[in-house]
Amino acid sequence: MAIILALSGALFSGSGDFLGGVASRRGRVMAVVLFNHVAGVVAVLALGPLFGGSLDWPTVWWGGLAGLSGAFAVVSLYRGFARSNMAVVSPIAAVGAGAWPVVWQIAGGDVPRLVVMTGLIVGLLAIWTISSGGPIHEAEDVRAGVIYGMLAGLGFGGLYIFLSLGSDTSGIWALLPARAAGSIVVLGIASATGRELVPHRKAVAPSIGAGAFVTLGNGLFVVASTKGSLAVVAVLAAMFPAATVILAWLVLGERLTRQRQLGLVLALVAVGLVAGG
Questions:
Q1: Predicted pLDDT at 249
Q2: Is the terminal CB of the chain with fewer CB neighbours within 10 Å at N or C?
Q3: Helices (H) and strands (E) in the chain, counts
């Protein structure tokens, strides 16, 4: 069940990132991120009763930290995109999202079985292969891209870890303080830097859709983390770039390169190893 929930979470999160990417192409990126977070708050209020559970103070604490970590990740990611190349930043950030929870679990003394560990390593390789792509020009600041990619990966990994530390009976309510804290941080950054707070008219709908889909994906991750190994659930949930790439291929006609086809095959192998273990 945990594997199915984690993969479903990756599907919804990747779909949300696709919508967010469509919205961001229309400009006012910080406004898109802000609408994304606010839509996430509304989504939790709407979906929370369906998932059940309740919000207690420890979950508020961990959820708030998850929101701050997620906001840090998003800001680092976009700063990286501005200073370097997506081909440098994205794969490092995506692998970090899956790797840090694995490190956290192993550091806590819970080492996965050999077959599962092999699946996790193949999964991280799949995430890298799917996320990377595109030329890196000599003029690009690769060092800055690596640094911001690592910071973004740390932030996304922290998001997963903190969400997993909430009460097992909280359902997806941990996402309420997470999304609220993220909204406040993004609003503060946008206001301090004089950015627009409202996306372009044609970007409003995909921005809201992105927030709803990513929130549902994160919610499925939270539930999955109560039913299985954090390391397994986090790596599978971090495969969200696969959904983004496939949607870009189907909807926008973007070319599905051989490298990304290989990445999708590796992802299937990783899922099989993890499930078999």
A1: 85
A2: N
A3: 11, 0
Token pair recorded at residue 231: 């390391």
Q: The tokens of 139 are what?
A: 């003029």
Q: Cα(85)–Cα(79) distance, rounded to whole angstroms?
A: 11
CA atoms within 13 A on the CB side of 127: 28
pLDDT digits (tens, 9 = 90+) for 261-275: 888 888 888 888 887
DSSP 190-237: HHHTT--SS--HHHHHHHHHHHHHHHHHHHHHHHHHTTS-HHHHHHHH
Q: Are 224 and 10 in contact (CB under 8 A)?
A: no
At position 151, the amino acid (one-letter code) is: L
CB distance 219 to 8 below 8 Å: no
pTM comes to: 0.88
The model's confidence at residue 151, banded by pLDDT at 50, 70 and 90, is very high
Q: Does residue 43 register a pLDDT over 90?
A: yes
Q: Which residue is it, tokens 């990783």?
A: 270
Angle CA(262)–CA(206)–CA(11) in degrees, nearest 5? 35
